[in-house]
Write a structure and sequence with these properties.
Length: 117
């Protein structure tokens, strides 16, 4: 369990967006990212016969499709409270130093994943 210091306002915003994406869609996960220009993007799990994305992958795809070239932070909300390797890889490709806030389905912070190394 991470330290319980309150999130700064910008991180609280992406945490809220991730939780909102989860609640709005009823998907397995909701996620949000903040790019290096301060813009935010959200996504939810996509599970189609022709396409499968985790929520973080969907949020990264939305950011890239909007012209983002870097990510400074990410958040994912899910019942499992876990973030898989492909999701982390998507974040790390655009934001090698970006922390990933891990939230439960109520939006409570359960962990902060920092880059290895």
């Amino acid at each position: 369990m991470p330290e319980t210091a309150p999130l700064d306002p910008e991180d609280a915003k992406i945490a809220t967006l991730a939780r909102s994406a989860l609640a709005r869609t009823g998907a397995a996960e909701g996620a949000a990212v903040r790019d290096t220009d301060g813009r935010t993007y959200s996504g939810a799990t996509v599970s189609l016969d022709s396409l499968a994305l985790t929520a973080l992958q969907a949020a990264i795809a939305a950011a890239v499709a909007s012209g983002a070239t870097g990510v400074e932070a990410a958040a994912v909300a899910s019942e499992s409270g876990e973030v898989d390797a492909p999701s982390l890889a998507a974040v790390r490709e655009l934001g090698p130093a970006a922390p990933v806030l891990v939230l439960d389905q109520r939006g409570e912070l359960s962990d902060v994943l920092h880059p290895a190394g």
